[in-house]
Protein: DUF1657 domain-containing protein
Organism: Neobacillus bataviensis LMG 21833
Amino acid sequence: MTIASNVNQCLSTIKGIEAQLSSLALNSLEEEAKAMFHETSLKIGDVKKDLQYRVLELERNEPQYKGT
């Protein structure tokens, strides 16, 4: 597995985690839990943005990774 494949796989996992945390925030009954899930989802969103940027960097600088 190439670096680009690993980063893309990690990005997909992060997207799933972000969606699950958002769902937990919406469905939680306790306000403290809602806030914690929401805050964590936002932090994961920042990680997702960083990984998306890294994928673009890989594709731009390493043409062999484009579209993987």
